[in-house]
Amino acid sequence: MELLQFTSSPLLHGSSKFINSPEFYKSKLSNLKKPPTTTFRCCNHPNKTSHFANSKAFENVTKNLVIRASKSAELETAVIKKPQSQRFQVSKGYPTPFGATLRDGGVNFSIFSSNAVSATLCLITLSDLQENKVTEEIALDSFANKTGDVWHVFLKGDFKDMLYGYKFDGKFSPQEGHYFDPTKIVLDPYAKAVISRAQFGVLGPDENCWPQMACLVPTPEDEFDWEGDLPLKYPQRDLIIYEVHVRGFTRHESSKSEHPGTYLDEKNSIIGLQSKGISAGHLILCRTSHFVPLVKEIKHLPPPNPQNDSSTSILFFDLSLRKDLGINCLELMPCHEFNELEYFSYNSVLGDYKVNFWGYSTINYFSPMIRYSSAGIRNCGHDAINEFKLLVKEAHKRGIEVVMDVVFNHTVEGNDKGPILSFRGVDNSVYYMLAPKGEFYNYSGCGNTFNCNHPVVRQFIVDCLRYWVTEMHVDGFRFDLASIMTRGSSLWDSVNVYGIPIEGDLLTTGTPLRSPPLIDLISNDPILRGVKLIAEAWDTGGLYQVGIFPHWGIWSEWNGKYRDIVRQFIKGTDGFAGAFAECLCGSPNLYQGVPMISMGDEYGHTKGGNNNTYCHDNDVNLCTLLISGTLLTHECESLGLSDFPTADRLQWHGHAPGLPDWSDKSRFVAFTLIDSVKGEIYVAFNASHLPVIISLPKRPGYRWEPLVDTSKPEPFDFLSSDLPAKEIAIKQYAPFLDANLYPMLSYSSIILLLSPDENA
User: 596 phi and psi, to 5 degrees?
Assistant: First the structure.
């Protein structure tokens, strides 16, 4: 390489432009009495070093010069350092797209960092990563390998088992928001997979919870056969969502899975077994082994009965019967790369170790969680990506959409005492919401707040969402603490965001915005506006937007009001009977919601009163049981209305017909609904600790018959049409029903159907 430096010269006084003309320098330098004493370094002649006056190759050399003259008449140093590599052919590269991208027979590396003064691409083989070594470092030139605020380089060569990361140098000044550390290898925010430890919950070398991580390099072999897969595009009102935790769904021993708690088994096989002995109309929650709709023989746990220890049964099932369950959408709890050992510590109460089980602490937003795959770090993460794709493809084959729970409100890097892993080491003041003295805003409750409405960050989020839709074929997203995405970014400036000043705009960092640029960008994106967009419309900073989230006509919201009110009534809190009734029928305030089932709800899974089990990798969070039942919305039209019910079809009742009790002490709510399929249905909830005998509305020529009674043991809690003992069970109710009465036990609910009275 060759380097040319000039001493101060009045020749270029007043110039502040980049000058690339060899003729210009010839004419000016001919007037100098002696040549400069520094050496000349040129991209085209990396091995030549010479004094300028001795070089006859000036015209060839200077065509690659970039020389800047300052306004103070000092001619600044012009440096072009062509990156060197022993393994790869290196050229300057391209600023877009961000990340590592295949093109022109090689790989282009591109990353944004506006405040770094130097950047180094670190190449690491998989074997060297496990020994905490860097295979090769390629220093990037701030002129040749930088366009604007984007560093880039293009490499050709053999990338087999090769990973990468970056080192950035610059200010380490937390009070100014900068955390550059050239000793740290940081992850590319646009990396498509992150490689470190291979197995969930297993410590790294020397019992290290945070071993070095590195990024996947794409290869031409990264093809996946989607077999013509296309999005299902169900109307949102028709969804029945099942929230599932990948590891928790198949980790329990009852799954009998070869690789429990992972996306799929090592053969990526889908074993199709037809359902035996289970007729249409039953609700069958499939124990999907390895997260794809794997059809498998499952031995399930018996109902809770200490005297029935030997009772087992074999269920054969097929996710193709999901219409009987009604589930047509899986909502995956966080599947982006996170570190489950983040909170690793001994739990003396349970005698195990606490981990980050839920995963709401993202390391990288493009990478699927590698330790949820059976492949682990094999093939540098390529196989793990394909396992996730197989999950989505097989779900779509069976008519099930896949929605991801995403956490764009904060990252794993935490506050100023957190680790430097990626965003912080790349450009902390851009990616995080900071106070004037560098402190981290904490609207997430997790130490930092992602700077969502910064122009660079909001484009990053959109790029990420697009990737999961176009490359991974997911059908939508649920945004954790989505209200953070509506807050003003650090150093908010309407001119910077909108291009023009806004009268009266005195917004400060974190102020809720009426038209958040990120939400605007997502809502009007030609790709993203067509997928499911679900907001958890609040954050831990006190911003609560349920019912008022800026939705652009396409967003929906988690109904926190509905959830909280129902919980309060069901557990017997005073003063919630009326609010509970409002939740049941819906309102403009609470709206008519899409039903969502949490994993385990289908069999009454209990967490023992712990409502925040984020750190438990044990039976508290593991799915353990299969049951049968049915989906009532298929049988009762009135339970799936598209609009709020009115008095024309809905009537409220108390212990006696037509006399609802809305007092603060009421623990009972009942109603009847006119139904176009069943004629009429009666629904009641007894949230009291006491049983009650209720009087039913009289319907001449008809009688009420039980369909659901949650106080009864299985299978008599649901009297489906094909239940062998159904008629016997109904006769047991006869003394009460003949008198138009029904006995309800404490903490139970019932559904009765109106049927013609043959004895009338």
Answer: -135, 130
| Other CB atoms within 10 Å distance of the CB of residue 151 | 26
What is the rounded distance in angstroms from the CA atom of residue 112 to the CA atom of residue 429? Answer: 13
Can you tell me whether residue 20 is helix, strand or coil? coil
DSSP state for residue 688 in the 8-state scheme: S
Output b/e per residue, 670-699; b: 16+ Cβ within 10 A.
bbbbbbeebebbbbbbbbbeeebebbbbeb
CA dist 37 → 44, 63, 66, 318, 499 (Å): 21, 21, 19, 79, 48
Cα separation, 338 vs 213, in Å, equals 11
Question: Please, what's the largest Cα pairwise distance for the chain?
Answer: 123
- Whether pLDDT at 452 is above 70: yes
Report the range of poorest mean pLDDT among 161-175, 382-396, 502-516, 646-660.
502-516
Least Cα distance to 667 among 594, 750, 578 occurs for 578
What is the spatial distance between Cα 490 and Cα 472, in angstroms, rounded to a whole number?
A: 32
- Characterize 612-649 residue by residue with b for buried, 16 or more Cβ atoms within 10 angstroms of its Cβ, and e for exposed: eeebbbbbbbbbbbbbbbbbbebbbebbbbeeebeeee
Structure tokens at 273: 């077994």
Q: Do the strands 283-284 and 336-338 form a parallel or antiparallel pair, or are they unpaired? A: unpaired
Q: How confident is the model at residue 193 (pLDDT cuts 50, 70, 90)?
A: very high
In 169-299, where does DSSP find H-type helix?
246-250
730, 706 in Cβ contact below 8 A?
A: yes
Residues with a known catalytic role: 480, 536
Helix (H, G, I), strand (E, B) or coil at 705: strand
Number of helices followed by number of strands (H, E) in the chain: 13, 38
- Give pLDDT tens digits for 478-509: 999 999 999 999 866 666 666 677 665 566 89
In 599-711 the beta strands, taken as DSSP E runs, fall at: 628-629, 650-653, 668-675, 679-686, 692-695, 702-709
Q: Distance (Å, rounded) from C-alpha 27 to C-alpha 254?
A: 84
* In contact, 195 and 372? CB cutoff 8 Å: no
Considering the entire predicted model, what is its pTM? 0.81
Contact of 184 with 420, CB cutoff 8 Å:
yes
pLDDT in tens, 209-250: 999 999 999 999 888 999 999 999 999 988 999 999 999 988
